Amino acid sequence: MTYLESAAKFYSQVAETPEVGLCCVQSTPLQLPGLVVPPQMQEMNYGCGTTVHPTELSGNPTVLYVGVGGGLEALQFSYFSRRPGAVVAVDPVDEMRKAAARNLEIAAKENEWFDTSFVTIKEGDAFALPVPDNSVDVVAQNCLFNIFEPEDLSRALHETYRVLKPGGRLVMSDPISTRPIPEHLQQDDRLRAMCLSGALTYEQYVQRIIHAGFGQVEIRARRPYRLLDQENYKLDQHLLLESLDSVSFKVDIADDGACVFTGKMAVYTGPEEYFDDKAGHILSLGIPLAVCDKTAAKLAKAHPQAIMITDSTWYYDGGGCC
Ligand SMILES: C[S@@+](CC[C@H](N)C(=O)[O-])C[C@H]1O[C@@H](n2cnc3c(N)ncnc32)[C@H](O)[C@@H]1O
Asked: Max alpha carbon distance in the chain (Å)?
């Protein structure tokens, strides 16, 4: 059995017998007015963060959700795109598709705004998404791509790029690892399926996104997720996994590289009233400006005395300070 087949088997089991707390968080961080999440759906929250960011969802977007799980995030996306077919949710595991359909029917009874026609559940997998090129506004996946071996992760990322409209967004939540995961854990198919041993480091993960063609990546959250302890996982020292929420944009990669926003700010310290780098960044004296990591590095190198660069907050949503 390949590791992908093991993962599919594992998810068919947890579709039929929900495992509360599998993957990560046990409750959804996203509460929305007028949204009732049925307990059956909540129990099957197999995500490690959230991919539903209200600021990404203006304009009634079409959403392709990869790896439907119990349907929780498909329901949350529908909250923002209330029309038939607006959310297409894909999963190769028959039992999981059935569980999601069942949970969404219960949700329809408990949410007067929701109709099951808002979500179309389709058989398919991350490597062959059942939609045309350039056809969706948002692709989302939560806690699935970390299961993939690196080359498969790249294949899946390229596939999301194919189906997104130009300017479209890939919204993801995945575990990352604070150092490379040792081989003996990476080779454990069950741990991999449980989102515990396939994670890449932050740098490796972001590089794979950029190599797939995404010209802008924004980090929405980065937080501790699980500890692989020394004794149980046969490690030299404990290994902390984190969970990373990100949004990647299908825009061209600039000649000098992709823009990755991690919450850094550039602050001009004087002596003039403002500083213009002639590359699109005007810094007013004393007022922080959000910059990508590439620009932060350039400004820090060129103007170490005049410009202060703040640390990554690991939270960026397009805003500045004022
Ligand atoms: C960790 S669960 C996450 C479920 C859901 N995203 C959530 O947040 O609750 C992984 C999901 O991906 C599905 N899956 C497994 N292999 C897949 C593949 N190759 N392509 C798409 N989905 C897959 C599983 O059946 C399961 O529904």
From this structure: 66
